[in-house]
Amino acid sequence: MANISKARPIPAGRTTARRALNPKTTRSILAHTVLIALSLMFVTPFLWLVSTSLKIDTQIFAFPPIWIPQPATFEQYVKGLNYIPFLLYLRNTAIYCGLSVLGTIISSSLVAYSLARIRWAGRGMLFAVIIATLMVPAQVTLIPLFLVFKTLGWLDSLAPLIVPHFFLQPFSIFLLRQFFMTIPIELSEAARIDGASEFQIYRSVIMPLATPVLASVGLFTFLATWNDYLGPLIYLNSPEKYTLSLGLAQFRGEHGVEWGALMAVSTVMIIPVLIAFFFTQRTFIQGITMTGIKG
User: Fold this and answer.
1) Which residues contact 276 (CB under 8 A, 6 or more apart)?
2) Residue 250: in which H helix or E strand, if any?
3) Cis link prior to 64 (omega < 30° from 0)?
4) Where are the domains of the chain?
5) Which of 27-36, 204-213, 281-290 has the least mean pLDDT?
6) How far apart (Å, rounded) are the C-alpha atoms in residues 168 and 65?
7) What pLDDT sits at residue 1?
8) Among the CATH numbers 3.30.1390.10, 3.30.1240.10, 3.40.930.10, 1.10.3720.10, which is that of 77-290?
C-alpha cells in the first residue's frame, strides 16, 4: 500500500500574514486610514474651539499653542452668556428656526405632491422653472425683496425671514418630489377607490411614508436658519429682536475681540445642531439616499 503523505499544517503566523496581505483587507485599511485622517482635519477646528472656550485669557494666544487648558475653567461661558442677552436671542432664533422649518415642510410638500402625484398640463415645465431658480444667486434678489418688505412695513421684524419659507423653497421641493415619485402609485389609487380626496391621500398615505425626507428637509432648513447671519443683519434693527448669529457679532468691539467669550458662546450654539443631527442621523441619511432613485 502506497504511503499517503499528510498535508503539513500551516503555521498560525503565516495564516495571519497571508490574511493581512489580502488585497481586500489592504484596501480596507487604506480607506479607513484616509477617512480617519480626513476626519481629524475636520474635527481639529472644533476641538480648538472647545479648548479655547475653557482657557483663561492669558492662555488663548500663548505660543506654542496650549491644546489642553491648565486649568480648565468655565469662566468664559459665564462671561459670554452674560455679555449678551443670550436667552432673548435664543428665543428669537428658536422662533425663526421653528416657523421656518414648519413653513418649508408644509409648502414644499404640497407643491412636491402636486408635481409628483397629480397629472396636469404644464407640471414638467413648472418643475423646470423651479429648478432653474436654484441657479439664481440670492444676492440678485436681495434688493428687490428688501424693497418689497419695506413696502409691506415688515422691516425690523422676523416676518421677512419667516414668511418666504411658507411659499417657495426650490431645493426642498426637489427632494420631496423625487421621494414622492418612489412611492408606488397603487397606494394612491387604492385610496381613491375608497373615496379619499387628494388632500386625504397626501395627509394619510404619502406624508406618513415620507418621514425620512421630511427629516432631511427639516434638518437642512434648521441648519440654514440657525446659522443665518445675512438675513437678520439686513432686516433687524432693534437689539431685542436679534438672533444668536447677530449676538456673536457683538463680541467684536472697537478696540478688540472677546475671543474667549466668543468661543464659549459659539460652542453653546453648536450643541443644538449636534443634538439635532445625532437624533435624526439615520432618518436623514435614509431620506437623502432614497431621493433621486426615480426621475
Assistant:
1) 219, 222
2) none
3) yes
4) 12-73, 77-290
5) 281-290
6) 47
7) 45
8) 1.10.3720.10
